Each structure stands twice: as C-alpha cells, then as structure tokens.
C-alpha cells in the first residue's frame, strides 16, 4: 500500500532534488545577504534566503507547505522587484526570471506530494500562469518605459555653414571625419528613409590582413575609415597595409605593405585612416603629385604615390620619416601612430600613442609637424621644453612621460590652427610625480598654431586627471550663432561649445565639488569643471543599479558595490580597496567622435554608459604578481587597458576591471562575464545644437551576440551595448552607424531615432562608416574588422552598400 501524507518521511525524488536546489540557493543568498546587510545593503537577500532554506527543507521532507512557501517567496519577489526597479524590463530580468524558473520546477513536483484527483491539471495551470504573469510583467515594464523619441527635428537654421578646412565632402570623402572639420556629414541624399530598406551589398573585398600568429590574435581592431577622392578609395589595414580600390567596384588597384613587425603592436593593431595630399605646383602627371600618407604602428610616416602606391622618394628618406627620432630609448610597441595626421597649410600634424600604464618615464608625448611634401620636421611642441622649435639639442631627448595625443586632431585652414585632444602623462592613475606643465596641458584641448608649433590656447576638462579621462574624440568645427566654434565631446560625457579662435566657452560651464581622499588626497582638486549645456552622463550609481543573470550574481555585485569606495563622479582611486569610476574610461564619447548635420543643426552622439572597478596595487604586491613593463616581462600582448598595468617608477600598479564585470562565479575563471551595472551600456542621442536640448535618445545595440559566459543569446531585443566607432549623418535624413557589439550596421531615421534598416556584418563594426558617390550612385562603406577589446569577431571584410540599379 502507498504511504499517505501522514506516514511519508521524505518527498518524491523530484521534490527532494528541487528542494535541495532551493535550499542550497537559499543558503548562498542568506550568507551573502547577511554580508550585504552588514555592509548596509538590502535585507531582501537575507530574508528570502532564509525563507528558501525553509521551503527547500519542507520540499525534501515531502511537505506541500514548502511549495506554497516558495510560491509566496516569488510573489514577494515580484513586489520587491517592481518597488526597486519600476517599469524597466532589463532591470526586472535578474530579479524575477530565475525565481520563476525554479517556481516552474516547484509546481511540477507539487503533484507528487498530493493525492488530489486534479493535481496535475492544477500544476500545469500554475506553470502556465507563472510564465504568463512573468511575460506580462516584462512586457508591461518594457511598454511603460519612457518613450525615447521626443519630437520633430528643429527647422533648418544653419544652412550654408562654411567648412573652414577648405575641403568639400559629397561625391568625395577627403578626410577621416569627412573633412578636417570632422563633421561626419554628407550632403548626399540619394539614399533616404523612403528607400533605405532596399539597400544591398554592392561589393565586398577582403584585405588579407588577419592575425598570423597566436601571439597577436588578441590585438586586432580594424578601425579604418576609407577616403574617397575621384574614382578611388584609399584605406589602411590594422598593420598599415595601404590599399587603393576602384570606388564603383571595389577592384584593387594597388597595395603597399610597410612590413610592420608584430612587436610594434601596442594594445591594439589599428590604423584609423590615411591622409590625401595634392602637392601645390606639381604637374598632375608627375609621380607623387598626389600622395597617400599614413602613420604606422612603429611610428613611421610613409608617403606613396596615390596612383601607383610606390614610395615617394622626395618624402623623408625614400618615402619614410621616423617620428621616434629625438625620443631616446623606445621599446617596441611603446610608441605608435594609429590615427591619421591632420593636414593644415601643408603641415602634417601628428601625435602618437604611448603605451598606457607601463612606466612613468615612458617616451615623450611630443607633438610634431612635418612638411607634407618633404617629410622634414617643421616644428615640434615639447611642453617641458617650449623654447625648442626643432629636434632636441645634441645629447638630449624630448621630455619623457609627457601627455600625448593618441587620437585625431581637427584643423582650421583659415585660422591656421590644429586642435589637439590631449591625453594624460605616462601613467593614468597616479599623479604626484607630474610636473606643473603636464598638469596644465593634460586632458585638455590645445590649439596649436600650425606655422609656429606653439600653443595658442587650451581648454582643460579635468584637473589632475587620475581616471584616464583623456580626450579621445576630435573636436568638430561649426558655426555657432554666428561665431566660429567647435563642439568638444568628452569621455566623461560632457559636451562643450568653444570659440575656436580663443577657446572661450560659448555655452555654460560650471564647477562641482569633487570627492577627496584616495592615495593622494593632497593632489585632488576641490572642484572639477562640467558642462551645464549638455552631458551624456547619467545619474550616480546606487545599489539598485546592480545587475546580473540571477539574484546570486546580482547580490555579489551589490556586495562589491558596498565594499568599494564610491563618492560619485570623480571618486579617487584607492589601494587595498576598489573604487568605482563612473563613467569609466570608455564612457561618454571616445575616438569615434560625434556627427553634426550643419543644415539642420543637429548633433548625433553615440555613447557608452559603463563604470570601471579600479584598485591600486602597492609596488611590492605588483612585483610578486610579476607585473612589469611590457619590454621586460609583460608576456602576451592585448587585452583590456589597465588590467594589471605596472605603472613602473610610481608606488602603485593598477588593476582596472573595465566595464566592471562580475568575475566571481564557481567553475568559471572569468565569472559570468556579465556587467555589474544594469543595462543600457550604450546609447545614441540627437541633440539640438541651438540650445543643447535632446531631440531623441535611445539605447543602442541588441543582445544578439551577448550573454553569460560569452555565449551569444541571439536575442534581438535592444539592450544597449558598449560601442566604439562613430556615426555618419546625411542630407537624406539618415544616420549610418555600426559600432555596437551586435555586429550590425544600421540606418537610423534622423527625425525619429528609429532603426529603419540593418544588416549583419561578418565581423564587428568598430569603425566609422563613410559615404560617397561614384557614377551617379551613392555608396555606404564600412570596415567590418572586429575588435579584441570589444570582443567582436575579427574579419578583414570591407563592405560597400548601394541601392539596386
């Protein structure tokens, strides 16, 4: 005879297994919840954890009360989740999905503990109800989310805005940002919202530049934006192979390989673009009358004939100039040019990347101006030796460790000024050894007179920066209410409008009190500047903003939040304790820059919204871990910047968890890989340039290639992913952009912010697209090369799109 409920000592096998799982999870939540409560955090995890232990024990014993208790836990969880996060579907996911999955299991084992005739019908009905309620909750949360689409575009009020670079964009795309004004705007309108849905691939070419060895497989990031002049496209590959293509067909015309060694690769093998130069006074049929010039990863400037790809013998030494001359000792990979120089009045102005985080006395960040025809040095600006105008005197070198410009400058041909977005001194997270001149020019936009090489003015966005908030994006040159101006975006999310003649702010700039403390409290500024006109920055983080794939890892992130030092924006880094940097060093606007429609007066800005989890590591501990500059004991190159950087010749190394991933998870070295902050992690926004007000704002990027443990979810839902690379806006009323980690290129309606066309790329689209016209047809081109830092698939495909004939 079957035992009745009054004689049963244990439940069914199903209830024992489910009860054990619930009890185990409850123990984890109770233990972690107790820790969180001690730290001043939410009591939910402790209370629910203890209740789950009891529910699990009852199920193991075969008591129906365990199932009913767990049902009550889920009901309370729903109420708590809505109270904490409100109508935000992604915020609700870790709070309710995993508990509902367990509820389904509980409902399915409850009939094995009951003798009611209709017990299975009730169980299956309960399962259906649980799934339905969960789905409705998520749907309602998503439907009730604030609508990011605001209103109509402003009426065109800035039509005819002159371009001070002296270049014209339209049929051609003559510079990295369209022109040296860096507007990333095209007056082409053949492709528009009415027909963009018909866009198809016109041609695809493969550059052939892919990692050839295991050693460099984690370094590639093809960030190139081609130029188009006449009937030819010009581009460079990650290792600086220059290629010319027929614009209408993609057929290769020539290529030049400078044979850059693998040892020259810094964090990323990337070449963002090349320079086109037509030499004044040279006959069009002469060799090198028009030339393509690039900077290389081993810091050479190379000039080749635009028609043949052959080296220009009158440039430097047989077509090459070494930008490292005068720097003294330069270990391989420490100095690289990965952004195209800026050409103003015949002078190629270039900075270079100095490998971050290695040594306080790394090579100099000197800015150099080379003659675009001869390749000879015209001038150099060494901020520590402003009296020098050329190479250092014999036996001396450029000052080591000074702030550098690793990104792209913009230029005003009329004013003869080049605008330099400057970085930090050689180590980012320690400032006591910085000299006054370094503090003065770091994290600043510096206007250089291209004739003399001397600074005309500067605008500093961060005082004594220890957050790696260097300027990453070009300033964009515009007219602002009748004044020659520039729009300057920053990593911390602020957007400034400055008079480009003198650096005076044309929009309000305020001061906020900055947190004190950290390892150098005497170095921290009492206040920091912020834009009062427009910022992409979101409110400070709270414990409720923590995320994960389940309540357990969300709880772990909450514990990390409570343990860390976080005093809001500009929290200083500490040793022996993590600090939260929000936004992180990839936050706000990075090297992709912004796009501006000068006819409609609209700024389009894609942005990141992620924190970093940072800790300084005392020198003795760093030495034990084997952290040393790369030329000594760095090991495999690649990976995230700041993750175990030695910062030699300072008291501290630094360990940066970029994006703040949850790395605590059993049986997984790198944890779930999920970020501790809830989505979105990236967005795109249209801004009225006349008043700085938002036109529309939306999360940018889907979850299709993202998921726990690096497993793509393939979910098409918009989550807002990290993004690198910029946008192009056209007179046709479209924004073209890839950039996100979902490997899609999109056309966004400039009027509404809605995606109206997209295509799946063969690799990550971490590059800025460009558009041009050939034989009466408008083309859109994107380098789908992928990126190691963004963890997108590496490819060598360059893709052109056009409307069908």
Automatic annotation (TrEMBL):
Annotated segments matching region Disordered:
626-648
Give the Pyrrolo-quinoline quinone repeat domain ranges: 173-779
Gene Ontology CC terms, in alphabetical order: membrane
Q: Which domain of life is it from?
A: Bacteria
EC no. given is 1.1.-.-
Q: List the InterPro entries hit by this protein, alphabetically.
A: PQQ_b-propeller_rpt, PQQ_mDH, PQQ_rpt_dom, Quinoprotein_ADH-like_sf
Q: Which cofactor does it need?
A: pyrroloquinoline quinone
Q: Which residues cross the membrane?
A: 12-37, 43-60, 67-83, 89-110, 122-141
Which major enzyme category is it?
A: oxidoreductase
Q: What keywords sit in the KW lines?
A: Membrane, Oxidoreductase, Transmembrane, Transmembrane helix
Care to name a GO molecular-function term for this sequence? quinoprotein glucose dehydrogenase activity
Q: Pfam families per the record?
A: PQQ
Entry-linked Gene3D superfamilies = Quinoprotein alcohol dehydrogenase-like superfamily (2.140.10.10)
CDD domains xref list: PQQ_mGDH
Q: Which NCBIfam families match?
A: PQQ_membr_DH (TIGR03074)
The family note in this entry says: Belongs to the bacterial PQQ dehydrogenase family.
This protein is called: Membrane-bound PQQ-dependent dehydrogenase, glucose/quinate/shikimate family
Q: What is the lineage of its organism?
A: Bacteria, Pseudomonadati, Pseudomonadota, Alphaproteobacteria, Sphingomonadales
């Amino acid at each position: 005879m079957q035992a009745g409920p009054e004689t049963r000592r244990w439940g069914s096998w199903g209830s024992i297994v489910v009860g054990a799982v619930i009890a185990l999870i409850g123990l984890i939540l109770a233990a972690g919840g107790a820790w969180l409560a001690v730290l001043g955090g939410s009591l939910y995890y402790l209370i629910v954890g203890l209740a789950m232990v009891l529910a699990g024990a009852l199920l193991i014993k075969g008591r129906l009360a365990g199932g009913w208790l767990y049902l009550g836990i889920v009901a309370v969880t729903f109420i708590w989740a809505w109270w904490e996060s409100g109508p935000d579907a992604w915020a609700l996911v870790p709070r309710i999905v995993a508990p509902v999955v367990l509820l389904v299991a509980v409902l399915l084992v409850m009939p094995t503990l009951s003798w009611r005739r209709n017990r299975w019908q009730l169980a299956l009905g309960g399962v259906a109800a649980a799934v339905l309620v969960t789905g409705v909750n998520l749907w309602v949360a998503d439907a009730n989310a604030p609508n990011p689409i605001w209103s109509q575009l402003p009426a065109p009020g800035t039509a005819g805005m002159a371009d001070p670079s002296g270049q014209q964009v339209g049929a051609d795309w003559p510079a990295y940002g369209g022109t040296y004004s860096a507007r990333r705007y095209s007056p082409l309108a053949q492709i528009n919202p009415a027909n963009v849905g018909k866009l198809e691939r016109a041609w695809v070419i493969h550059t052939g530049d892919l990692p050839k060895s295991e050693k460099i497989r984690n370094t590639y990031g093809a960030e190139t934006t081609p130029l188009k002049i006449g009937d030819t496209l010009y581009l460079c590959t990650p290792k600086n192979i220059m290629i010319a293509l027929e614009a209408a067909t993609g057929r290769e015309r020539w290529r030049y390989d400078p044979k850059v060694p693998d040892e020259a690769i810094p964090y990323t093998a990337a070449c963002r673009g090349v320079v086109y130069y037509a030499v004044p006074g040279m006959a069009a049929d002469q060799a090198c009358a028009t030339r393509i010039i690039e900077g290389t990863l081993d810091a050479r400037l190379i000039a080749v004939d635009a028609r043949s790809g052959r080296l220009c013998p009158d440039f430097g030494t047989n077509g090459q100039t070494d930008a490292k001359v005068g720097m003294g000792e330069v270990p391989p990979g420490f100095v690289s040019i990965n952004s195209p120089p800026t050409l103003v009045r015949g002078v190629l102005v270039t900075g270079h990347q100095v490998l971050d985080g290695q040594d306080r006395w790394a090579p100099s960040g000197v800015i150099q101006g080379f003659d675009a025809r001869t390749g000879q040095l015209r001038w150099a600006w060494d901020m520590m030796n402003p009296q020098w105008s050329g190479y250092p005197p014999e036996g001396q070198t450029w000052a080591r460790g000074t702030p550098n410009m690793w990104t792209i400058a913009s230029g005003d041909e009329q004013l003869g000024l080049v605008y330099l977005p400057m970085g930090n001194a050689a180590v980012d997270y320690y400032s006591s050894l910085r000299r006054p001149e370094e503090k003065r020019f770091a994290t600043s936009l510096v206007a250089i007179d291209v004739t003399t090489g001397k600074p005309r003015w500067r605008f500093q966005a961060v005082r004594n920066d220890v957050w790696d908030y260097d300027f990453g994006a070009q300033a964009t040159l515009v007219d602002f209410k009748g004044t020659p101006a520039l729009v300057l975006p920053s990593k911390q999310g602020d957007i400034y409008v400055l008079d480009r003649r003198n650096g005076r702010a044309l929009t309000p700039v305020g001061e906020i009190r900055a947190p004190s403390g950290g390892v150098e409290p005497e170095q921290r500024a009492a206040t920091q500047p912020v834009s009062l006109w427009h910022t992409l920055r979101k409110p400070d983080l709270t414990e409720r903003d923590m995320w994960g794939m389940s309540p357990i890892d969300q709880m772990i992130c909450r514990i990390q939040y409570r343990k860390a030092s976080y005093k809001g924006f500009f929290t200083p880094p500490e040793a022996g304790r993590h600090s939260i940097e929000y936004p992180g060093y990839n936050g706000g606007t990075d090297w992709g820059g912004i796009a501006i429609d000068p006819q409609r007066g609209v700024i389009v800005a894609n942005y990141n919204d992620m924190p970093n989890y940072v800790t300084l590591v005392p020198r003795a501990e760093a030495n034990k871990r084997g952290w040393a500059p790369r030329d000594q004991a760095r090991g495999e190159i690649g990976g995230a910047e700041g993750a175990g950087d030695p910062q030699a010749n300072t008291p501290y190394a630094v360990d940066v968890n970029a994006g703040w991933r949850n790395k605590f998870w059993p049986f997984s070295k790198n944890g779930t890989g999920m970020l501790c902050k809830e989505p979105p992690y990236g967005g795109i926004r249209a801004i009225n340039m006349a008043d700085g007000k938002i036109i529309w704002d939306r999360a940018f990027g889907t979850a299709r290639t993202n998921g726990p443990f690096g497993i793509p979810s393939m979910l098409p839902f918009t989550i807002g992913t990290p993004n690198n690379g910029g946008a192009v806006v056209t007179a046709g009323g479209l924004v073209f952009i890839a950039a996100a980690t979902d490997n899609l290129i999109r056309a966004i309606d400039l009027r509404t912010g809605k995606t109206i066309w997209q295509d799946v790329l063969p690799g990550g689209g971490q590059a800025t697209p460009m558009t041009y016209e050939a034989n009466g047809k408008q083309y859109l081109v994107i380098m789908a090369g992928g990126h190691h830092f963004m963890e997108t698939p590496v490819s060598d495909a360059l893709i052109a799109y056009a409307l069908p004939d």
